[in-house]
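Re: beginner question about structure tokens

> Can someone show what the tokenized structure looks like for a real chain? I only ever see the sequence side.

Sure, here's an example I had lying around. Input first:
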Amino acid sequence: MKYLFFLFFVISTSAFSQETVEAILIQSTKIEVDTLVSVDNFGTVYFTKNDVFYKKDTSKSISYNNLQLGSLYSANTFNPLKINLFYKDFNTLVILDNRLAEIFKIDFNLLTPYKNVTHVSTGFDNTIWIFNQDQQKLELFDYKTRTTRAQTAPVQNMVLDLKSNYNYCWLLTKNHLYIYNYFGALVSKIENLGYTAIQIFNKNCFLKKGNSLYYLKENTKIPKEIKIPNLLIHGFSVTNETLYIYDNKNLHELQLKIN
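And the corresponding structure tokens:
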């Protein structure tokens, strides 16, 4: 009986340990930012400070600001050749190239029909994903032809975050995380158990809940907790199997051990 109990304990412990992902601290760098946007494969850091958007690598730092549009609400660097900056107060999106030169501006107030946009993320080609607050729908919008290529069914929950790549879009609401393809069709839906922000790398999703992070592998519905050192998570970014955490003073680089 003792042997069976011990065997059961070992199997249970092993199974439980597989439900977490380990993150090992590699290095920390002092940096002062308001919002960490992302870190790319080359170590280039994208961030905001005092409503100014920055791109900083090991040799130089360049910036973009547009004070006429007020506060910078969000930035998306998935496509570094078409960086999206969203100024929510003016319902306007600015698209920058890799030198942070302005290449396109979309004032949603001037569109017909008018679009009241709350969240924006990068799509494929000349498209962006936008959440239309008035219709409560996610739209794949072509900003050059000013047409909607695809849209989802109405979403009745409050939207917390929006991220995308060329093929899929992740919409985090108060009650659920929705995953859509570029046709606007719902691919997956999981319950939101307190997550407030997401980051995407490839087809995998990383979620923030309080001061904890979770890993949701493609085609699964149960996130695994990431075991991280005792760090304050003010912002985070994921590139390949490297996790970056900003704690208000330092940018910490951690190696993810994902099976």
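Each token stands for a local structural state, so reading them left to right follows the chain. The longest helix spans residues 2-17.
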